[in-house]
Amino acid sequence: MVVWVFWLIAAGVLFVVEMMTLTFYLLWLSIGALAACLVSLLLPDAVLLQVVAGSLVALGLTVFSKPLVARFRSSRGFQDTGTDIVGRQGLVVEPIEPGRYGQVKVGGDTWSATSIESLGKDEVVKVVGRSSTIIEVVRWGDMY
């Protein structure tokens, strides 16, 4: 297999996984893999240079994007759509056991959810926290 194809496949896989995580880290790695792909097209035998170029691009994007994202998030009028979900009511569509994920429908969206208590299907819950694509819920009315 030609090396640039490997880098292109790696970039595509990382990008697809990134779409499921809602973070930017895998996106930066995906762009780094694309940079390595470009280097491999120019210098197909310089594998070490491809790895270094991809790593430097991913590292640079990670380091330099953090301050920009922090500034953007602290700007006036910024509203993270994910934090709006905290405090809302949801409905369990797949039972949740402590330490295992279930599914909760909040509004029109279905989220992976965890809880410190067992929750059965069709129970009404309240969202008390969110981390990336997973929400934490409690039984409605059982707020601690």
TrEMBL record:
Record localization: Membrane
Origin species, per record, is Paenibacillus graminis
Identify the residues that the record assigns to the NfeD-like C-terminal domain, covering every copy: 84-138
Q: Name one GO cellular component term.
A: plasma membrane
Q: What is this protein's name?
A: NfeD-like C-terminal domain-containing protein
The domain of life is: Bacteria
Task: Tell me where the transmembrane regions lie.
Answer: 5-27, 47-69
Sorted alphabetically, the keyword list is:
Membrane, Transmembrane, Transmembrane helix
Cite the InterPro entries for this sequence: Membrane_assoc_protease, NA-bd_OB-fold, NfeD-like_C
Q: Which PANTHER family match?
A: INNER MEMBRANE PROTEIN YBBJ (PTHR33507:SF3)
Coiled coil location: none
Signal peptide (UniProt feature, chain positions): none
On whether Hydrolase is a keyword of this UniProt record, the answer is no
Query: Kinase among the record's keywords?
Result: no
Classify the protein's membrane topology as the record does: Multi-pass membrane protein
